[in-house]
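2024-03-11 09:14:02 DEBUG pipeline.ingest accepted 1 chain
2024-03-11 09:14:02 DEBUG pipeline.ingest length=711
2024-03-11 09:14:03 DEBUG pipeline.predict start
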Amino acid sequence: MSEECCGPDEPRKTGTVGRIELARSLAVGDACCAPSEVESAAAKSRVHDDGDACCGPALSASAAVTDGIPEVRPPWWRDVALLPSALAGVFLVVGYALEWSGLHIPGLVLLWVALLAGAYTFVPGAIGRLLRGRLGVALLMTIAAVGAVLLGHVGEAAALAFLFSLAEALEDRAMDRAKEGLRALLSLIPETVRVSRLTGDVTIPAADVRELDILVVGAGERVATDGVVVEGRSSLDTSAVTGESIPVDVGPGDPVAAGSVNGAATLRIEATADGRNNSLNQIVALVAQAHARKGDRARLADRIARPLVPAVLIAAALVALFGVVIGDPWTWIERALVVLVAASPCALAIAVPVTVVSAIGAASKFGVVIKSGEAFEQLGTIRQVAFDKTGTLTRNEPTVVDVQTATGVTRHDVLGWAAAVESTSTHPLAAAITAAAQDPVNATDVVEDAGCGITGRIGGRIVRVGNARWLNPGGLAVTAESMAARGMTVVVVEADGQIAGLIGVRDELRAESPETVRLLHAQNIQTIMLTGDNDRTARAIAREAGITDVRAEQLPKDKADAIAALVASRPIAMVGDGINDAPALATATVGIAMGVKGSAAAIESADVAFTGHDLRLISGALAHAKRGRRIMTANIVLALAIIIVLFPLALFGVLGLAGVVLVHEIAEVVVILNGVRAARRPALARNVIPAARACALDGMTRDVVTSNSGR
C-alpha cells in the first residue's frame, strides 16, 4: 500500500545495479530465496504484518522477492494457510447445529473455538499495527468481533471472524497465483550444469557458472546462462523465454539465451554471463519490480481507503453516542458495530493490487515484462505508438538486396572486388557485402578513408568502394537514385577510375512489421516512425510497413522533443532498442524496449521490455492492458457500491451483523475473482506468437549494435 496508508515501504533498489543485485538474490541456489514448505506455510498463515494497510500485504519489490517467489503454490486442499479458516468454518457450522438442536453449552464452546481460529489470522496483526499508530480494516473487524461478544452475539462474531479470515486467505492465494509467472521464469534455470574442464566434464551448480566457462548442453537440456555456441549444431526451443514458438537453428558463433531448451544434438556453449547475472535473471528482476509502484487507479483506491478507516470509526462512535443520548445505548451500539463492518474498505483496498499482479504475471508469460503497476495502467491508455526504425521495424542486419553493373562487368566481379577490399573493414555495410560475395579474391595496399570509403589493389587493378558522395556514379546515377528511393544504401564500386557497378544494401523490414502496424490501426491506434536515417530511406521503409507519419533525420534530442510534443495531445508509447532511443523512451507515456539484452540505457529508460522480437506482441500487450484497466475500474466501482449500499442498511437496522458480514465478504471474494481474471491473455495476445512466421523470428535476444548514430 502507499506510504500514506500504512507507512513507508521497505527500501528498494533501483537502477541497473539494483536490478543486478536483485537478480543475483533471485538466482537458483540462493538459499535466502528458497524457504521450506513449512516456513512458507507459516509465513502465509501468520497474521499480516507491516504493509497490510487494509486487507493484503503491500506489493513492494522487496515483498515480491521475500514472499517466496520460487515456492510452488500447493493445491487448496493441502494449503496450510487455509487451515485456520477451514477449522473456523467447520466449528461454526457444527456449533450452530448443536445450538439449534438444543445443546447450547457444547454449541457455544464450538462457536468460541471457531471465533478464536478465525481471529488468530488477523487480530494479533491489527493490535500490533495499532500500537505503531496504524489503522486498518482488520482493526475494524477486531472491534466489531469484540463488541459482538460483549453484546452476547458469539455466533455472529464467529461468523465475522470466519468470513474475514477466509477472504484474506483467498486473497493470499490469488496473489500467489499471480506470482506463478515469476516462479515459472526461475524454474527455467537448471539446478546443475555440465562444464568442460581440462580434466573432463564436471557437474557444478548453475549459480557457479562463470563467464567464459564452456557449457556442455545435451539433448533436451536447458541452457543455464547466456552464451555463444562454439561447437555443434542443433535447434533451440526458446518459447518459454521469448514466447516464440518456432525452434531456432543455431551453430558456431550464434548467441544462446539462458532458459532455452536444446534440441537433438549436444552443444558446447561459451558463457557470456555468469550464472547469477544473465538475461533470465534480468527478466525476473524486472518483473519483480512490477510490484514496486502503483498507477493512478491504485493511488485512487488508496486515497479513498486511507481516510475511510478513521471516518468509519468516527461514524460508529457517533452512532453509539446517539444511542446513549436517546436512552437506548445497547441497540445503537450494536448498530455501530454493524456500521463498522458495512463501511470497511477491504474490497476497495484489494481491488487494484490483485488485478495488477495477475495481469503483469500473465504478461511475462507471453514475453512482455512490465516494470511497474503504473506502467501497466498507462499501457492501457495508449492511443499512438512511435517506432524507431533500425533494429525495431527492421532487423538491424544490413544485407545486399540489389547489384547493378556497368557494361562489360559481371555481378560476380562487382561483389568480388568490393568484398576483397572490405574484408578487413569493421563497417556494418562491409559485413553485408562480404557475406554476399562468393569466393572473394585477396586485396593488398588497403587504405580506408573514414566516412567516405576504402581503396585497395586487386592484382593490377586499383579498386575503390564508397558512398555516392565520394564516388560519382556517372552513367549509373539514375539507377542509384532509383535504388535510394527504394530505401537502399547505395555503395559505388570503381575499378581503375571507371564505375564498375552499384551495390544496394538495406536493413530489411521485419516480416511481421506490416502486420503489426495493421493490428494497431485496427485498434484505432496511430503509428509514427522516428529515425535518424535520411528522409528517402525512412519513407521507403515506412511505406512498406504501412506508416504514413514519418519523422526522419532525428537526433536523440529531436526524438525526445517529438515525443514530448505528441504526449501533449494523447498518450503515446515509444518503441526502441538503442542508446539513442533512451531519451525518447523516458519521455513517452510508456517506453517499450525491444529485447532485454538491448541497450542497457534503453532498458533502464523503458517501462516495458520484450523478451522476444516479434513486434506483434505490442498489439497483444496493449489489448491485455486495456482489459486489465476495465477490470480494475469494475472492481473499484463494485467495492464503492458495496459500501454505499450497506452503510444505510446497517445504520437503520435493515441488516444485522451476520447479514452485513456475509454480503461484504462475498463481495470481497467477487472482487478477488474478478481481479484474477486479468491473468487470462486476450485472444489477440494468444494468437500473436503461434501465428508467427519462421522468417519473422530470430528466436533470440541479441546484442544491439549502437555504434551507428544515424538511427
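2024-03-11 09:14:41 DEBUG pipeline.report The CA atoms of residues 216 and 268 lie 5 Å apart.
2024-03-11 09:14:41 DEBUG pipeline.predict end
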